[in-house]
Design goal:
Blueprint lengths: L7 E4 L3 H12 L4 E4 L3 H11 L5 E4 L2 H6 L6 E4 L5 H10 L8 E4 L5 H12 L4 E8 L1 H7 L2 E4 L3 H14 L2 E2 L2 E2 L9 H30 L4 H12 L6 H9 L24 H12 L4 H13 L2 H10 L10 H34 L5 H7 L10 H11 L10 H23 L5 H13 L6 H12 L18
Parallel strand pairs: 1-2, 1-4, 2-3, 4-5, 5-6
Antiparallel strand pairs: 6-7, 8-9
Helix pairs in contact: 1-6, 1-7, 8-11, 8-12, 8-14, 9-10, 11-12, 12-18, 14-17, 14-18, 15-16
Length: 469
């Protein structure tokens, strides 16, 4: 092996890392991997087949010296202290202007800190969100790079080659300065939480209210995926319903414990939305529902205490028709909340985000890819100052034509004791956002009453306080 001959380096040869580096090699860039686990190193070398195109080592000096200048090194390791540890292990071996790319789900403020630290060392650093799971990493993910535009241009040809393609366009674009890439990926994951919660709620409703069996659910979700609800999450849900249990009779989905885990990105999205004052209730409640799901023993006990009575729903075909419209409504509202957060964060943090471009790179490769994103991209192209999709003329009719179904389904679910907080919150958000007057005047009066917090008036300028007692 000659030194300085490989185009791209990757640290972390787990499933994502191994698939991503093989994708790089498939696109005619020579790639070199690094991992402390010798089994992962040998596995990559074996799968790569030709060490002149893809190679790996467990020795950091060998790894760094194999890369051409300026070195382009991507980290696909768990977020947190491990990223800092890998950076410190690399630093003694790097040269000025080398580039480190964090491809994990790092919290955006950590990216800002690392960029400033490495700039002081003469090293370029930027975060790049990568979505698509293991399959996407291998066959084409959606990539969201931010940070130094100059450093990104060095990597741009590689990223454009490996990214998913939509109508020939690579699903990668420069997001903006600083931690823009990691921030956009964080909100992508928040939207993902919301969409997953919604697809699960509608499964629950149809299963109990139809009642639809797994074969019927497969047909319904497959049909939805051929229409305006076409999306990766609806598609894989349809496939899940027809997977048989490998350990016995029945379908696998029925044997999976109803406790969902999370890695934190959904929670970060909710927390930051509160920090910058943007409401995202559908995403918020999707995080809460994973936390409620973890209370399995308490839920089982509580279920014995409260009887919901009999289930009373309309006939199957009518229920399916209402559900399709309501889910489309809720999908729009979830994307609207996430894009609203991105718009506000761009102003807050100086990211200079182009929302139409973000929607475009989400059209293929990523977990939240959906036909709906084409309409979203068009809406932000037509009005670059658009703050919320609810204010887009292109979405006005879509929402008007489906809001009634959402109300009908919310009523049915509430009357039958079926939890659908994602849909409930989507509808409540819509009703609140489209209300010219909310009852928060009473809250302001209460705050002034007990805490002298003052209030404003509708009929005159100024700040007022009243001695209420």
């Amino acid at each position: 092996m000659q030194n300085n001959t490989y185009d791209f380096g990757l640290v972390g040869l787990g499933v994502m890392g191994r698939n991503f580096i093989l994708n790089v090699a498939d696109n005619n860039y020579k790639a070199f991997g690094y991992d402390l686990d010798p089994d992962k190193v040998s596995s990559l070398i074996k799968e790569g087949g030709d060490i002149s195109k893809v190679n790996a080592s467990g020795d950091i000096s060998t790894f760094v010296n194999a890369l051409s200048l300026p070195r382009k090194i991507m980290l696909l390791v768990p977020a947190g202290k491990i990223v800092d540890a890998v950076i410190e292990s690399l630093l003694p071996h790097l040269s000025a202007n080398d580039i480190i790319i964090d491809g994990g789900n790092s919290f955006f403020t950590d990216t800002d800190r690392r960029e400033a630290y490495l700039q002081s060392k003469g090293i370029n650093f930027f975060g790049a969100g990568v979505s698509g799971g293991a399959e996407g990493a291998r066959n084409g993910p959606s990539i969201m790079p931010g940070g130094s535009s100059k450093a990104y241009k060095e990597v741009q040809p590689i990223f454009e080659a490996v990214a998913a393609k939509f109508n020939g366009e690579p699903c990668v674009a420069y997001m903006g300065p600083k931690s823009a890439g990691n921030y956009v990926k964080m909100v992508h994951n928040g939207i993902e939480y919301g969409l997953m919660q919604l697809t699960a709620e509608f499964y629950d409703l149809l299963q109990k209210g139809g009642p639809l069996n797994n074969a019927e659910l497969h047909e319904v979700y497959s049909e939805w995926n051929r229409g305006r609800l076409q999306s990766f999450l609806v598609e894989i849900s349809a496939e899940i319903f027809e997977k048989e249990d490998p350990f016995g009779q029945g379908m696998l989905v029925d044997k999976i414990l109803d406790k969902a885990r999370q890695k934190g990105t959904g929670k970060w999205t909710s927390q930051n939305a509160m920090d910058i004052g943007i409401p995202i209730p559908t995403i918020d409640v999707s995080v809460s529902m994973r936390e409620i799901s973890a209370l399995k023993q308490e839920r089982m006990l509580a279920a014995t205490r409260y009887d919901r009575g009999s289930i009373n729903f309309p006939e199957k075909e009518k229920l399916i028709t209402i559900a399709e419209k309501a889910l489309y409504f809720a999908f729009i509202l979830t994307y609207a909340q996430g894009m609203h957060q991105l718009k506000a964060a761009s102003n807050e943090y100086g990211y200079e985000l182009k929302l139409a471009g973000i929607a475009k790179i989400w059209r293929a490769g990523c977990i939240i890819r959906a036909t709906l994103l084409e309409d979203i991209a068009n809406a932000y192209e037509e009005d670059t100052g658009l703050t919320n999709l609810l204010l887009s003329p292109a979405f006005e009719e879509k929402i008007k034509n489906t809001a009634g179904a959402a109300r009908e389904l919310v009523t049915l679910a509430a009357n039958n004791g079926i939890p659908m907080p994602g849909l409930f919150n989507s509808l409540s958000y819509f009703d609140a956002y489209t209300s010219a007057r909310l009852p928060l005047n009473l809250i302001q009066a209460q705050r002034d009453y007990f805490g002298s917090h003052t209030y404003e008036r509708t009929d005159r300028e100024g700040i007022f306080h009243t001695d209420w007692s």
